[in-house]
Design brief:
56% of the residues lie in helices and 2% in strands. The chain has 262 residues and is mainly alpha-helical. It folds into two domains: 112 residues, Orthogonal Bundle (Cytochrome Bc1 Complex, Chain D, domain 2); 92 residues, Cytochrome c-like domain (Cytochrome Bc1 Complex, Chain D, domain 2). It has a two-stranded antiparallel sheet with strand order 1-2. The longest helix has 31 residues. Its main location: membrane.
Length: 262
């Protein structure tokens, strides 16, 4: 009996184990937070983060919370990364003018320096996709043929094979990719804005992302050797054009026959 009593756990053992677990969790969280802030500091200065914090509180906190934690009006920005902020702000999608099916492209409300500062602050909240470097955007090093394969397999069902965009459900749409900045295309693949899925480096590698951009820029610079482009919307616009011309010919022929009978 004495041996059994010695093997019994002390009443406070469970409490001590719980305290140790909480301390360990807190320590790991502190280390992770410090690492995230240090990672942000590699690309941005402390001044960038500080100025970005001021801009965020003045312009973004109403929807995204004072610390980027999110609210009923906007999602959390912890861990979205600098690339997401750069994309949304540089395209004018954020700040939104009004709630709707999706944020609309409009003139940017912040200049390049302010956009960088906002990105620096959000990057300090948690690790996420970074703004791509110049090498990743160098289309002269890309493979347009491979980019076409990647684009057709992953993007054409929404954006059209020619990148002309298309309608989605419930008032949403996939925008045209013609005339879009290379960096913004790369960031969109990284972060998955609006209804777009996230294509991380495991799904589409950085080289493949560059190939996709090369393909889109090739399409953008190409003329229409076969005649009218018709919006590059494929069989929809082509069929409408053929039906319209065909009906006009039939109507004209009917009018001609009627005039001869008279």
């Amino acid at each position: 009996m004495k041996a059994l009593s010695q093997k019994r756990r002390h009443p406070l053992a469970l409490l001590a184990l719980l305290v140790c677990a909480l301390l360990l969790t807190g320590g790991l969280y502190a280390v992770a937070t410090t690492t995230n802030q240090a990672k942000a500091a590699e690309n941005y200065t402390a001044s960038d983060v500080d100025e970005g914090s001021k801009l965020f509180i003045s312009n973004c906190s109403t929807c995204h919370g004072m610390n980027g934690e999110g609210s009923d009006s906007g999602p959390s920005l912890v861990g979205v990364g600098a690339a997401s902020v750069d994309f949304q702000v540089s395209t004018g999608r954020m700040p939104m003018q009004m709630q709707g099916p999706q944020a609309q492209v409009k003139p940017a409300q912040f200049n390049e320096e302010q956009t960088r500062q906002l990105a620096a602050y959000v990057a300090s909240l948690g690790a996420g996709p970074e703004v791509p470097d110049e090498e990743s955007l160098d289309v002269s090093q890309g493979d347009a043929a491979n980019g076409a394969k990647v684009f057709l397999a992953n993007c054409a069902m929404c954006h059209n094979a020619a990148g002309a965009g298309g309608a989605l459900t419930r008032g949403k749409y996939a925008p045209s990719l013609m005339g879009v900045d290379e960096k913004q295309i790369y960031e969109a693949m990284q972060t998955g804005p609006q209804n777009m899925p996230v294509f991380n480096d495991a799904n589409i590698t950085p080289d493949e992302k560059r190939d996709v951009i090369t393909y889109l820029k090739t399409m953008e610079n190409n003329t229409d050797p076969g005649g009218f482009g018709l919006g590059s919307l494929g069989p929809v616009s082509e069929g409408l054009f053929i039906w319209t011309i065909g009906l006009l010919i039939i109507i004209g022929f009917a009018v001609w026959l009627t005039s001869r009978s008279a």
